Amino acid sequence: MTNNRSWIPYLLILPSVAFLALLFIVPLLQTIWLAFSDNGVPSPANAQRMMADINFARSIKNTFLLTLAVVPVQLAIALVMGTMVAKVGRGRETILWVWTIPLGISDLAAGLVWLSILQNSGYFNSLLLGLGIIERQASWLSYQTPVALFFAIAVAEIWRGTAIVMVIIVAGLNQVPREFREAAEIFGAGAWTRFWRITLPLIRPALQSALILRTVLAFEVFAVVYALGGRNFPVLVGEAYNWQNQNQNYGVAAAYAVLIMIISLAATMIYLKAIKVDPERLP
Amino acid sequence: MKRLMSFGIVASTVLAFASPVLAQTVFVSTQLRPIEEATVVREELLQDVGDVDYVVEEPPQFAVRMEAERQAGTRTVSVVGALHGEISPLADKDSLEPLDELARTLAAGGMPQSLLDLGKLGKSTQQYIPWMQATYVMAAKKEALQYLPSGADVNALNYDQLIEWGKKMQEATGQPQIGFPAGPKGLMARYFQGYFYPSFTGGVVRTFQSADAAAGWEQLKALWAYVNPNSTNYDFMQEPLAAGEVMVAWDHVARLKNAISAAPDDYVVFPAPAGPKGRGYMPVVAGLAIPKGAPDKDGATKIIEHLTTPEIQLLTASRVGFFPTLNIKLPEDLDPGVALLAGAVTATQASKDALISLLPVGLGDKGGEFNKVYMDSFQRIVLQNEPIGDVLEAQGQTLAKLMTDTKASCWAPDAQSDGPCPVE
């Protein structure tokens, strides 16, 4: 009986496969072809053009530095927030709701919010002026202040992207059975030991998902950087955008897109290998 | 029932998409995009030409839409209004109707032949009809005039005086007070192509890596010491001017207009400075064109004829601050801000050492990469402090390749060339 119906599962996933093929695989193949062809013949010209560009090395460096700075901080903050909210009884929903507000704001809007804080005539300078710390408006986002610029972008990104990590971690924490913690408490384990030896290993699947999602998103950072840094802080997606829209060279833009995809896929692979998840805990 | 419903949905979707195309003449424009200006176009400029759907698109989306319609072979757009450089890629792909008959009528009606020739984009037939023109000027807050070096005439500045002025303003206020639109959407590349290079070298492409150019870059570096470092974030200079971040700025008239129209008594508007080879300036032209296969060619022609009548050209000038392409006098009762800008344009054109620099012709869809050559040189020389000679040599190679690839011949102020414009 079951053998006769073995095609049913395939039939059921067919619509989604067709959907993916049409809207994902085909454009992907087109992008790869666009990146590695020149006037209709295969050619590495676009990739060479990309690598020879003055902003290529800078955009790689900036993207990786930003990812390295932002993701661990976000993970740490999200863990702290998640653990804190787990202890809260009344008002837990309200706190979670407030914490996830940045998630509901679009990237560019978030960038503009931070721009209005940090630009020359922004709120931050007004505050410093009011407190008498500075005598005149200071620039934080110019090419002459790369450290402040990097810091500003990192803070804006952390503000904007921590909520998504926290949501996943809270979901993971909810699944840790209370009995384990209670048992550990009976055996005299302190709070730190309980967190390190019980909670953290048990939320590995959630950590893995959060890290993959956040890192891939960090490699694709664009709108916040564009609003705050503009030309001063090139990142990979920003360069793809510039080549597509300003230079109107779709080939080089596609080369950037393929590079970003490779980096994202590699990062996902590393997380899948590095954070081993107990197969029994997989869904 | 279900089938009936899905049929209904499909039918209504088709109708929803199809009906506006049938009823209206679609006019897609990259110009006059802000809602106030678009409303002027819809309610005043296009009032008497039948049912026109005026749609605005950002330049990149415009390029993608036109290319997509060309590849698909179905046009929805009957008229396009865009800058010279944005129409050039369309002409390059042979996707525009020749407009020679219209051009002849307009030439007889007083449109300068030199402007009409720009609309040929280096081809044998008329590709677009010049619609409106503008240029770039400098604007300063009146309080900045007190720091003007003695003996300097603000309407006839040179680079030494501008540097001196910037220095005095910085010493007095503690802040660099000169601003340039070098942000991601700013028009800084046009400063190099229409102002900096012609003024210092008398050319744009041929003289790219000449000794004159190197000397010019040295002066720009000296000037940049008094330029607000936030300039690399500025797109429209009217914003930092109005916010008081800078006192002196160079930009496109349309990108200065809001600040100046809001407080015309606070500003002076004047020509860009002159270099050793003259006072370079670049007229900007927006044109109207009809794509091949346009659904409503007659309606499109009617729109173009209407927008190039003297009354509508004058109305355009007074309402949105772009100047007529017809040879007509502006009215007395102009908006005071627009009048200030118009005064600076006249002063530029009338100055003894004026050196006109035309918009690039024949670059096709490489206009963006052409801009990038100048902006990359700027980034490396001025912002990253790399040796001028090395940068000009490397960027000069890129420029030379661009010229050979596009086979674009030289345009003014460069001397004519047989074949692609050489980088000497």
This entry's quaternary arrangement is heterodimer
The H/E string of chain B reads HEHEHEHHHEEHEHHHEHEEEHHEHEHH
Largest sheet of chain A: 2 strands, antiparallel
Query: Strand share of the residues of chain A?
Result: under 5%
Tell me how many strands of chain A there are: 2
- Uncertain stretches of 5 or more adjacent residues of chain A: none
Kindly report the spatial arrangement of strands forming the biggest sheet of chain A: 1-2
- N-to-C SSE series of chain A? HEEHHHHHHHHHHHH
What average pLDDT do the residues of chain B reach? 88
What does this structure look like?
- The complex is a heterodimer of chains A (283) and B (424).
- Chain A is mainly alpha-helical.
- Chain A has a domain at 64-236 and 257-281: Orthogonal Bundle (MetI-like fold), CATH 1.10.3720.
- Chain A contains 13 helices and two strands; from the N terminus they run αββαααααααααααα.
- Chain A has a two-stranded antiparallel sheet.
- The longest helix of chain A has 32 residues, at 56-87.
- Chain A is flat and about 70 Å long.
- The model of chain A has no long low-confidence stretch (mean pLDDT 89).
- Chain B has 424 residues and is of the alpha/beta class.
- Chain B contains 16 helices and twelve strands.
- In chain B, the strands form three sheets. A six-stranded mixed sheet of chain B has the order 2-1-3-10-4-11.
- In chain B, α2 (35-45) packs antiparallel against α13 (310-320).
- Chain B is globular, with a radius of gyration of 23 Å.
- Classes of the chains: A mainly alpha (283), B alpha/beta (424).
- Chains A and B meet through α12 of A and α15 of B.
